[in-house]
Amino acid sequence: MTATVVDAAPIVDIVNLQVVFPRSDRLIQAVRGLDLRIGRGEAVGIVGESGSGKSVTVRSLLGLAGTGAIVEADRFDLFGRPALGQSERAWRRLRGGRIGLVLQDALVSLDPLRTVRAEIDEVLRRHRPGSAAQRAARVKQLLDDVGMDEPALRSRQRPHQLSGGLRQRALIASAVAGDPDLIVADEPTTALDVTVQAQVLALLAARRAADTALLLVSHDLAVVAKVCDRVIVMKDGVAVEEGPTDQVLAAPAVAYTRQLLASVPSAASRGRTLSLTQPQPLPARRRQADRTVLRAERLSRDFNAPGGAVCHAVRSVSLTVAAGETLGLVGESGSGKSTVAKLLAGLLEPGQGQVWLDGQLWAPLSDRGRLARRRQIQLIAQDPLSSFDPRYSAEQILAEPLRRDRLGRSEIARQINRVLDLVHLSQALLNSSPRTFSGGERQRLAIARALIAQPAVLIADEPVSALDVSVQAQILDLLAQVQAETAASLVFISHDLGVVHHLADRVLVMKDGLVVESGPADDVFRCPSHPYTQELLAALPQLPASAAACQPAL
Amino acid sequence: MTAVISYPALSSEEVVAPLAGLSQSAPSPAGDDPAPSESNQPAKAASAASRPSTRGWPRLLRRGFARLAQAAFMIWAAASLTFAAVQLAPGETIDTLLGVNANDPVMRAQVIQDWGLDHPVAVQYLLYFWRLAHGDLGVSYVEHRPVAALLADVFPATAELTLWAFAIAVVLAVVLAVATSGGSRLGRALSQAVELAVVSAPPFWIGMLLLAVFSFRLGWFPVAGTSGWRAVALPALAIGWPIGCYLAQVLREGLDRALEQPFALTARARGLRLRDVKLRHGLRHAALPALTMSGLTVGNLLGGAVICETVFGRAGLGQLALHAINAKDIPVILAAGLLSAAVFVAVTTAVDLAYLAVDPRLRGAGTWQEAKA
Questions:
Q1: CA A551 → CA A5, A121, A484, A547, B209, distances in Å?
Q2: Least buried of A171, A189, A274, A431, by fewest C-beta within 10 Å?
Q3: Residue B239: pLDDT band by 50, 70, 90 thresholds?
Q4: DSSP sequence for B193-215
Q5: How does residue B25 score in pLDDT terms, banded at 50, 70 and 90?
Q6: Is the pLDDT of residue A196 over 60?
Q7: pLDDT class of A307 with cuts at 50, 70, 90
Q8: Measured between alpha carbons, how far is B180 from B176 in angstroms, rounded to an integer?
Q9: What does DSSP assign to residue A275?
Q10: Which of B45, B281, B365 is opposite residue A165, by nearest beta carbon?
Q11: Which residues on chain B are in Cβ contact (under 8 Å) with A338?
């Protein structure tokens, strides 16, 4: 490209961006007065929780803010030219050609019915026309560039045939196929395992080193810290803080940023609250290390994979949970941790091995034999909403576990009020449907439903993974407090090492159905002995402030 | 053969439901769930080798064969039911078969000979299939001609009408759905109103309306007849138009849903026109429920043809069946029933196989988890 005056201008120069969505009854102000400037080759991050307007902001850079969106700004220059109100033709030249978009989860962000080659070729045909042979060679080159093994083979495959990491690479290859000057990545690593996330971030950093500018949007401060020079913290459509990444994350000037950073669970936050501005020590739990509540011995479970293959989901897993103890179960997706949760909860029969609950056999056992003791183990799911009957009100949801007891109306009300107090939910919500609840309220309701059965063991399978970091902090604090008040044991399953390190007394690290390492949380995370645990910890993006505090001993 | 095309109001879930059997191996999109969703299959980091399964194609073939075997079973069942219907009809089987000729001693002897009525039922059953296997559908004792010959005379005309009607329906559905999905509310509301009116109108009425305008008033098309494209145009339109409007509704809903998916945003961010996103990405996604519906409607087209052939004075399967019913010509009625069952089975089989072509995920082969296992 010839160097012109226009080329010297910043890629993005936006002053006072306003994005409004008119709805039938009101206006929704998604972005309110944002300034955004991205120079050539610069990497800028936008951090914010859901609803902060970060996605709308990046989409407005492509003229795709959404149906009916009204985008206004004092200045809206892309590549030195005013872009607001430009023709659809002009927008289409920019999209893919000069600005490439990478979204979350390539399983649905790439057309699932088309091959990787067709998806990349679509960009080439639009922006880099050439003969079919030239384009095919370019597709291969692009897949090579993003680190795909066997690009010729991959190009013929479809997203569902690729692993999460390969899929995301294919998506990035299609975004950079038009050789854009700016890559806009909206939560590009959010659904990925930490090791895969590290690879994708390295890939984006490599593009960046090749002089492509990057706008990275994430809810995860550590992800942004790893790649970006500059970071903008957004809240409710406003940039509350902006500056060099190191400075903003190490010495945040604004209370909201400080709160956001304090909410991130990690080794450093063990034993203190996350959701309060001034961290308090967590309430003391009544651990009875000598009283084993739940014991699993050499549990195994196979599944028939389609095509006749057998998948060993869980292989000879043994564990014990003491009264009042928190056991963390970490591992990447597919490591078998959810299957362990189902085996422990008695929702799935083990192929081999036994589970003992309070010294009595719990599995394998007939459903009838378990029925009377069912309530001693309660599950908390990742997505609480789908675990509620959509036609039930909050009150009906809470009353359901009590149905077997044939209690009087006043006794049921008393029990419900007891658990509502425990989880800090207002009684005013009892008659409404959980669909109208916020994410945090839904998870509180799910915890309340688990508690109303007065269980000895709570099994929480990724209970905070779908939540914003500040809501996650509240729920983690709540779980600690509930445990202190009820003396229940907790089996906490998560892919997030920081969360587990924050919360768990002991941890099991799982990989391919096996427990590869176990022990007290501090020992395992500070001096991991198994290479896999070391790999997981090394892949974990670190915040600058906490980097020194929990350096894994390698 | 008295079934009239009916268009029940189906919700999208019901439309997709027939797919459920095929889709057990299709991965469900994870949505915008920000956490790694754990499946029961072992997953692995990106570095894990994920070769495509070489067992993919044989498995697809196996599935295709299984579907064809199922189709053969259904045709056998239909033929057996036909046989049973004759045996179980009240009165003597021979009287049922002879209909109005029941008192003709020569014909009686002929029927006993043709159907082997002097043998036990089990032998009759085997003989019946022996004849079917040789393309012998019996003899019409009213027309005094082999039933197969009677069917062969009229089948081309009906097939022509049905195929044209279906072609019109598909083109109309695609054009309407692509033009009105996603975009302006006004065009969409207008289109939906017209579609609803056409779908609700009885086909014979649409046929008479078309005749009144294009044949009687404008004189562009013949009033009756079977030969030439002009003769087929109006009846095909009368059948295809309502079906097209119906399919358009299914297709539009599918397109709208596809356009909400993240891959549609990705495609637009590549610089594609909205129209191209619909044509290249959306249509294929919307095609699955629409395929189910078109399979059901084409199966019913033969029934709908009765009315249209009457209105337009066309020879065809519907007319043949109608005459046979009026004349109590049982062998022809049975053969027509068997033929329409066979067509229905053929169409639904074709639809099921078409799913596999449209959605590679349904081929159930070569997901990376399996490849690893």
A1: 47, 44, 30, 6, 82
A2: A431
A3: confident
A4: HHHHHHHHS-HHHHHHHHIIIII
A5: very low
A6: yes
A7: low
A8: 6
A9: S
A10: B45
A11: 38, 40
Nearest to A546 by CA among A267, A275, A278, A276: A267
Interchain contact A332–B (C-beta under 8 A): yes
3-state DSSP call for residue A442?
helix
Closest by alpha carbon to B243, among B183, B289, B153, B304? Answer: B304
Question: Which chain A residue's Cα is nearest to B43?
Answer: A334
Q: What is the DSSP letter of B359?
A: -
Q: What is the pLDDT of residues A136-176, one digit of tens each?
A: 999 999 999 888 888 888 899 999 888 888 899 999 999 99
CA distance A316 to A438: 39
A 10 A CB-CB count for A15 gives 14
Angle, helices A439-452 vs A409-423, to 10°: value is 130
User: Residue A62: CA atoms inside 13 Å, Cβ hemisphere, count?
Assistant: 32
Strands (DSSP E) contained in A394-529 are: 457-461, 489-494, 506-511, 514-520
Q: Quote the ipTM score.
A: 0.82
- The answer to whether residue B284 neighbours chain A at the CB level (below 8 Å) is yes
pTM of the model: 0.79
B46 with A166: Cβ contact below 8 A: yes
- Cβ atoms of A87 and B8 within 8 Å: the answer is no
CB A471 within 8 A of CB A477: no
Say which amino acid occupies A249. L
β-pair type (A12-22, A70-72): antiparallel
Query: For residues B97 and B104, what is the distance between their CA atoms, to the nearest angstrom?
Result: 12
Is-contact A192 A220, C-beta < 8 A? no
Q: Are B239 and B203 in contact (CB under 8 A)?
A: yes
Report whether pLDDT(B39) > 50. no
- How many interface pairs between A and B have CB atoms less than 8 angstroms apart? 210
Token pair in block for residue A479: 């779980």
DSSP class of residue A281? Answer: B
- Which pair of structure tokens corresponds to residue A172? 């990035």
Is the minimum CB–CB distance between A310 and chain B shorter than 8 Å? Answer: yes
Indicate the burial class of B336 (C-beta count within 10 angstroms; 0-12, 13-18, 19 or more): buried
CB proximity list for B207: less than 8 A, separation 6 or greater: B234, B235, B238, B307, B308, B311, B312
pLDDT at A248 over 60: yes
Contacts of B33 in chain A (CB under 8 A): 191, 382-383, 466
For residue B44, is pLDDT > 80? no
pLDDT for residue A463 is more than 70: yes
Are the C-beta atoms of residues A21 and A27 closer than 8 Å to each other? yes
Rank A117-121, A225-229, B297-301 by mean pLDDT and report only the highest.
Answer: A117-121
Task: Copy the structure tokens of residue A143.
Answer: 């897949």
- Nearest residue on chain B to A120, judged by CA atoms? B270
Contact present, A293 and A358 (Cβ < 8 Å): yes
Mutant choice from B270, B291, B361 vs A, greatest count of A C-beta within 10 A: B270
Burial profile B269-282: b = 16 or more Cβ within 10 angstroms, e = fewer? bbbbebebbbebbb
Given a contact cutoff of 8 angstroms between Cβ atoms, the answer to whether A531 and A187 are in contact is: no
Residue type, B75: I
Distance CA B286, CA A542 (A): 44
Between B220 and A121, name the one with better pLDDT: A121
Comparing CB atoms, the residue among B47, B269, B373 nearest residue A309 is: B373
What's the number of CA atoms in the CB half-sphere (13 Å) around residue A454?
Answer: 5
CA closest to B366 among chain A residues: A161
Peptide bond into A364 cis (omega under 30): yes
A112-120 average pLDDT score: 93
Instruction: Output DSSP code: residue B217.
Output: I
